[in-house]
Amino acid sequence: MILSVVASGLVFFEVPINWTSFATGGVILVAVAADSALRRTGRRRR
């Protein structure tokens, strides 16, 4: 859902397709990093 919102926003602002792919990859990397950080802090609390 977040990826579709980001992609729609980039299309709306007429961003070139190369940057759209770059932004999609960036969103995925941020999501993986956030998930990893949350899992790490969850393990420490147990």
TrEMBL record:
Keyword Membrane carried by entry: yes
Residues spanning the membrane: 20-38
Transmembrane as UniProt keyword: yes
Keywords: Membrane, Transmembrane, Transmembrane helix
Name assigned to this protein: ABC transporter permease
Organism in which the protein naturally occurs: Streptomyces sp. R41
